């Protein structure tokens, strides 16, 4: 299972990379906008920190324009993966890009049927937004489980990214389903490291060790 970090914040990316558990980065227009920086230089800097795929989203809506924008984004760095929203034009663009060297991440996927089409069009990655489904009382992880089953049935090359992760339980569920990747906000990555019994254990070991040293 791979972990991507879901942010465009340089400090968070550096800290997560140093933890040694990160395999890539996903950004989106909202995450980039929060950083108040010129997007190309920000994406280039991210690519220099993380030796793995970095998703950057194309904002065009027509197939020809998406392809042109994707080609521009791919020039930023070899590790750039172009995020393309799940639309008919998006699928056409994915099909065309899949014939070349440019990797794609079909985003804003909320149903097994959308994921199936994205895989058939030749997407490198398919991003399922589980948290946003949970927000509207659907079971996001149930959709992820169905997509995993479909991709397994037909040995699709597309990798499943479970996105819109909101808590550690989501991450454990992704691992149980066997999806390829969880893209996780920094705040959830840090929560994954913690357990109150670990903190209590360290405190007790330290105080016992003080006694050993005192003898
Ligand atoms: O990067 C896409 C996705 O993970 C966004 O998550 O929290 O905005 O639903 P969220």
Describe the structure.
The longest helix is centred in the C-terminal third of the chain and has 19 residues, at 196-214. This protein has eleven helices and eight strands. The chain is globular, with a radius of gyration of 19 Å. Strands 1-2-3-4-5-6-7-8 form an eight-stranded parallel β-barrel, surrounded by seven helices. The model has no long low-confidence stretch (mean pLDDT 97). The termini are far apart. The chain has one domain (2-214): TIM Barrel, CATH 3.20.20. It has 215 residues and is α/β, with parallel strands linked by helices.
Mean residue pLDDT: 97
What share of residues are in beta strands? 15-25%
Provide the spatial order of strands within the biggest beta sheet.
1-2-3-4-5-6-7-8
Just name the CATH architecture. Answer: Alpha-Beta Barrel
Distance between the termini: 47 Å
Q: Which ligands does the model contain, each kind named once?
A: SN-glycerol-3-phosphate
Break the fold down into its secondary structure elements and pairings.
Blueprint: E1 2-6, H1 10-19, E2 24-26, H2 29-34, H3 39-49, E3 54-57, H4 63-74, E4 80-85, H5 88-98, E5 104-109, H6 112-121, E6 125-129, H7 130-135, H8 140-154, E7 159-163, H9 168-177, E8 181-184, H10 186-193, H11 196-214
Parallel strand pairs: 1-2, 1-8, 2-3, 3-4, 4-5, 5-6, 6-7, 7-8
Helix pairs in contact: 1-3, 4-5, 6-8, 8-9
The structure holds SN-glycerol-3-phosphate.
Residues 6, 26, 28, 129, 131-132, 163-164, 183 line the site of SN-glycerol-3-phosphate (G3P).
